[in-house]
Write a structure and sequence with these properties.
The complex is a heterodimer of chains A (about 375) and B (about 290). Chain A is α/β, with parallel strands linked by helices and about 375 residues long. Chain A is built from 13 helices and 16 strands. Chain B has one domain. Chain B has a two-stranded antiparallel sheet with strand order 1-2.
């Protein structure tokens, strides 16, 4: 009997302590962030998080939102879909965040999506580009990054200008790579461009000699590559080793041209890259003041310069979320979801606002972002 | 054109096969001869690459001196792992050892991440950027160098195991520990030496390939997976088997990716293993198992 009572007291004390903990946390508004901080996409995930942290500090320095400070709760999804689901469970279940940002790769985002439905928490998608994310009928999804289809459409006018006659594809074997290869090949066919061989690679692979030898034999003038910067670096180097003549164009915006110049060296010259932020010419973007301020802050913190094209996503994402919290007037999932539909945010990529995508009645939200093409020439990034 | 492509595939497979063989022989010493399921093999590979990064990029050491140092450090780390972790587990069952090695693998990988961040690091090499062109095919000078060093290391390991006193002691120890001990073999030293040599070979593979690819903390995962495939393919404990296994795996990947589907490139090796295990369960080159 005694034991039962003492257990009861013990449990109550723990409960009281937990309550006190959450009461103290009422002061801040928590925003969940799930990013790949380790594993295959570690570089990009860390850059996005650094961009988000800059936004957090700037917002708090300006007094926060609704009179409260914001606090990012960052979880590492380890570039692994199973872990991504676990981070969502933790952020929503334990940290009680009313809104999240994540999860970088399309495969990771798709893994998290059922949890958003289950718990009714909105997530801002800052990087993923697979079409499936906004067309599967998940009303908790708000995507600011372009879909592969939008990217392809933005590129359509360039195909003729660049004189592309026949194109091959080399894509990472996941939702991101396969989605982009499908959209770009369809777009090119529509432009009268012949599509040659379509090759894939494991997201962890480091040797592409077999794929490149086959691509070389296809005799195309252009090779579209869709993957993250780590693999792009190796592809550029190995394409040079195999004397591949085709011009390489990378899609997806996770290509960090500065990092490519640094790591692939000479092999990066002559390659083209679709990016969603041009830190080399901040005056060329829609909101140049924001862009300049962001670049200055990034450099002041001594973050790697190659991370800017990824880091801006985190900044735009957090600012969009905070604008929605402000409009909602309270930090509750449903109110934020409702408010996100109407936000108009000045972002680094451009003006952020959402349109409806997907099946009627349960649409997901999609922003219409700017897409830029840059070229690497003589070890420098140039306007195309 | 078709012949040119086939020649290029053949050359690629040869270059890749050399490094696979190097990974394979290191593991066959540890997994095949010592029977330690060595999950840290991939981390020693990554360690070799990161040592090159440290020495060449951060301290500005000469590439070739750095290479020797990186391998030496790999040998030292391997010896330390054996001395600290495995020595106490010598009588333990395979599950216990396996769990400890999994723990070491995770700890080492996270230590790499902590020390050098998750961002991939490139390592400069002194080889010309322009490739070596032979008729219709081409290959980078860096890879030719890697191939030659790999072959030299494989030959040296073969000689060590088969033609030296230490090699004889190794073979004796892992065939019958008690008898070897009775004959005066210092079995503790032999265990440490074998693990250190195997680890050094993994570090050598990493140090050679780090500059060809890039160094990043999870680079060892795929390398270790391939090393296990190669060892099983060639037969446990056989240096010749692991060497042949490396080249066979490279050829299967290269041709499979090109003529079947590149999406299954990394699956080719495992398809091959399933086939070989069905038809020749001891691997291609293993001698009959001696029991008792």
């Amino acid at each position: 009997m005694n034991r039962t009572i003492s257990t009861f007291i013990g449990v109550s004390l723990v409960g009281a302590a937990l309550l006190a903990g959450s009461a103290a946390a009422q002061g801040v508004i928590r925003i969940g962030v799930t990013q790949p901080l380790t594993g295959a996409f570690a570089a990009s995930g860390n850059y996005v998080t650094q961009g988000a942290k800059i936004a957090e500090d700037q917002i708090n320095a300006a007094g926060g939102v609704l009179g409260r400070k914001i606090q990012l709760v960052v979880e590492d999804n380890k570039s692994n879909p199973t872990e991504a689901v676990a981070t969502a469970e933790k952020l929503i279940g334990k940290d009680k965040v009313p809104v999240m940002m994540g999860a970088w790769s399309s495969t990771l985002t798709l893994a998290v999506m059922p949890k958003l439905m289950e718990y009714g928490v909105p997530m801002l998608v800052e990087t993923s580009s697979s079409g499936k994310i906004t067309t599967s009928g998940n009303p908790w999804i708000f995507r600011i990054s372009p879909t592969s289809e939008m990217e392809a459409r933005a590129f359509a006018s360039m195909a003729k200008k660049m004189g592309i006659k026949k194109a091959d594809f080399l894509s990472t074997n996941n939702d991101f790579g396969l989605g982009a290869a499908k959209e770009f090949s369809e777009m090119l066919k529509g432009q009268g461009v012949q599509v040659g061989t379509m090759e894939t690679m494991d997201p962890k692979a480091t040797d592409f000699s077999a794929q490149l030898a086959k691509i070389k034999a296809s005799g195309s003038d252009t090779l579209f590559v869709t993957t993250a910067v780590e693999q792009i670096t190796l592809i550029l180097k190995q394409a040079k080793e195999q004397q591949l003549k085709a011009r390489i164009i990378t899609t997806g915006g996770s290509n960090s041209p500065d990092q490519l110049i640094q790591q692939a060296g000479e092999a990066a010259n002559g390659s083209y890259h679709l990016v969603f932020f041009t830190p080399w010419f901040p005056e060329a973007v829609k909101n140049p003041d924001l862009a300049k301020k962001f670049v200055a802050e990034w450099n002041a913190r001594k973050y790697p310069v190659g991370g800017l094209t990824e880091g801006f996503r985190g900044w735009d994402g957090i600012n969009t979320i905070v604008a929605a919290i402000k409009a909602a007037g309270k930090a509750e999932p449903q109110a934020i979801q409702k408010a996100l539909w109407n936000v108009k945010v000045k972002g680094i990529n451009g003006d952020i606002a959402f349109i409806k995508q997907g099946p009627a009645g349960k649409e997901s939200a999609q922003n219409v972002p700017s897409v830029y093409v840059v070229k690497i020439a003589n070890g420098k990034v140039a306007k195309n | 054109m078709i012949l040119d492509q086939l020649l290029q595939h053949g050359l690629n497979a040869l270059m890749l096969g050399g490094t696979y063989a190097l990974l394979g022989i290191g593991l066959t010493l540890i997994f095949g001869i010592m029977r330690v399921v060595n999950f840290t093999h991939g981390e020693l590979y990554a360690f070799g690459a990161y040592m090159m990064y440290m020495l060449v990029m951060l301290t500005g050491a000469n590439f070739f001196i750095a290479l020797v140092l990186a391998v030496a450090l790999g040998v030292a780390l391997g010896a330390a792992l054996e001395f600290v972790l495995l020595r106490k587990l010598r009588g333990a069952d395979i599950d216990t050892t396996m769990l400890v090695m999994i723990g070491a693998w995770i700890a080492l990988q996270n230590a790499e991440q902590l020390a050098w961040t998750g961002v991939a690091q490139s390592i400069d090499s002194p080889f010309p950027a322009a490739p070596l062109v032979i008729g219709p095919v081409s290959v980078s000078w860096g890879r030719v160098f890697v191939f030659c060093v790999a072959l030299a290391l494989i030959a040296a390991t073969y000689a060590l195991i088969n033609h030296t006193r230490l090699g004889k002691a190794m073979r004796a120890t892992f065939q019958d520990r008690e008898t070897a001990a009775l004959m005066g073999v210092q079995i503790g030293t032999v265990h440490t030496a074998t693990f250190a040599v195997g680890s050094g070979l993994a570090a050598a593979a990493g140090a050679l390939l780090g500059p060809v690819y890039v160094a990043y903390p999870t680079m060892g995962d795929l390398a270790a997976l391939k090393a296990f495939a190669i060892v099983i393919l060639g037969g446990l404990g056989s240096i010749a088997g692991a060497t042949a296994g490396g080249f066979i795996l490279a050829l299967a990947e290269e041709l499979g990716a090109s003529y079947v589907s590149s999406g299954y490139r990394d699956a080719m090796g495992f398809v091959l293993i399933i086939l070989i295990l069905i038809f020749k369960p001891t691997g291609l080159f293993a001698q009959k198992e001696r029991i008792g």
